[in-house]
Amino acid sequence: MFRRDGPDSLSQYAREAYSLTRDVKASTLRQYVIAADLFERWAGAPVLLDQIDERSVSAWLRDYATTHKPDTVRSKRNSILALWRAASDDGLAENPIGRRVRRCTVPEPIVVAWTKGEVEQLLATAATLPRRHPCGLRRSEWWTLAIRVAWDSGLRWADQIEIPVSAVRPDGWVTVRQSKTGKAATFQFSPSTMEALRVSLEHCPRALVIPWTVSGETFRDQVTRLVAKAKVREGTWKWIRRGSGSDVELQARGAGHQHLGNTPRVFERSYGDKSIIGRAIPSPRELVVEAFRRERQLGLFGD
């Protein structure tokens, strides 16, 4: 194999060379570095790029799986293979054979979201909150508007709090760029959300629709308190995003992932609540009560 000049070890490559010719997010690169460090810590020495092999990676994943969840193990596998393939592309390592690297079976998650009724219950409870929000609005105004924005937009929280007032058209249509994907998202605020926004702007003129000026931890803590006060199922703010996508999917099959700005597979695995959407296939026909009564009369069931 012709070897170009470059880093010798996997962790060094992750830190110094991977991102030179690849547009990768800082958060993704950080996960690659963590995976490389964990692998080398297990190996007890730097893992040299020209010596890395499928058997050693598989042995590490086997041991790592004894103390970590399947989705975490799969993430680390993907990170190591991404680095290895890139190093191969740069002429620093042999190309890995993925099928020879130990796989991790990840159980299908059960997606849970708040229903439209539960979100409306949160909305009603938020309207009773006392005091004022740090941005100057009454807390009741800020939280009711925030819930409406989350439901209507289907955006991630980080994008919700960055929606400029100037991006909202008079008819309620909004287009913003998603921070995670860099893709544009277009949605429409409902008439009631537009009215709530109009009233709140009269009380507190501002540049952002729902500005949040303190930490994410504080936000999550206040959401937990709001949920408890509303007496809905215990969940996180993300449950509104899931519920929003599930409600759209309920109305039009295949539209949920478009509303949330992700792929059909990601939507099905992480956002679509099947108890809200329902099944695409029919349920078994109902058992008739008369047949059950006859069986009881024949003594097939005890009293």
Helix-strand blueprint:
Elements: H1 10-16, H2 26-43, H3 54-64, H4 70-89, H5 116-126, H6 139-153, H7 157-160, E1 173-177, E2 184-188, H8 191-203, H9 216-230, H10 238-251, H11 256-260, H12 264-270, H13 274-277, H14 289-297
Antiparallel strand pairs: 1-2
Helix pairs in contact: 1-2, 2-4, 5-6, 5-9, 6-8, 6-10
What value does the average pLDDT take? 93
What is the number of domains? 2
CATH superfamily of the largest domain: Intergrase catalytic core
Which percent bin holds the helix content?
40-55%
In N-to-C order, the SSE pattern is HHHHHHHEEHHHHHHH
DSSP helical segment count:
14
In CATH, what is the class of the largest domain?
Mainly Alpha
From the structure above, extract its key features.
globular; 303 residues; hpI Integrase, Chain A; DNA polymerase, domain 1; 3% strand; two-stranded antiparallel ribbon; mainly alpha
